[in-house]
Specification:
It is a single chain. The protein has about 180 residues and is an alpha+beta fold. The protein folds into two domains: about 5-80, Alpha-Beta Complex (Outer Surface Protein A, domain 3), CATH 3.90.930.12; about 85-180, Outer Surface Protein A, domain 3 (Alpha-Beta Complex). The chain contains two helices and 13 strands; from the N terminus they run E-E-E-E-E-E-H-E-E-E-E-E-E-H-E. It has helices at about 60-80, 145-155, and strands at about 5-10, 15-20, 25-30, 35, 45-50, 50-55, 85-90, 100-105, 105-110, 120, 130, 135-140, 170-180.
Length: about 180
């Protein structure tokens, strides 16, 4: 039996400004502005003072799930413009010393397992990448850009055609946190 209505409400903090135009949500805060369009989702949204209500009437299973998904996306947007997100990665090598450089919107990983050509990882959106000796720090206000950039770096150093228990060289994620230094 289907529920009559599935609803979630987000309390908007005082230091954040949220505007709603149709199903296009814009969140402004101290760190910046994020905009996202949820027009493809079969849900309803309503902004009342400092509350944003997301709901679906007579939802099927997929529509019920979408209410929670949109709620989580907007909550992440609010956290991003207030604090930001930081992912920390560690450069690990035992055989060949790996060197990492940023070049525009790409990250070059040189001398990985002695390879002559550098491996490349793409920087997504407005994510900032800093290389500090053995650490790579990825920061930004959009969680999806930051996490996808970190995933691209980890994936670029995946060991292929060798025993992964022996060749532990690579770049590995070791910390995810809210807030930017």
């Amino acid at each position: 039996m289907r529920a009559v209505e599935v609803s979630k409400t987000i309390q908007i903090p005082d230091d954040v400004e949220v505007t709603l135009e149709g199903k296009k949500v814009t969140v402004k805060g101290a760190k910046g502005t994020l905009t996202r369009d949820f027009s493809s989702a079969p849900i309803s949204m309503e902004l009342q003072a400092k509350n944003l209500r997301i709901w679906a009437n007579w939802p099927r299973k997929k529509e019920s799930a979408l209410v929670g998904t949109v709620y989580a996306h907007i909550r992440n947007m609010i956290t991003g413009v207030r604090k930001g997100f930081t992912y920390k990665l560690k450069i690990v090598f035992s055989h060949f010393p790996i060197s990492v450089k940023t070049q525009g919107k790409t990250i070059l990983i040189e001398n990985f397992t002695g390879e002559r050509n550098p491996r490349k990882a793409k920087i997504i959106g407005d994510a900032e990448v800093k290389v500090q000796s053995e650490d790579i720090i990825v920061q930004g206000i959009n969680l999806e850009d930051v996490s996808q950039t970190a995933a691209n770096i980890v994936q670029a150093t995946k060991v292929k055609r060798k025993d992964p228990r022996v060749f532990l060289d690579g770049i590995y994620l070791y910390e995810r946190s809210e807030g930017m230094e």
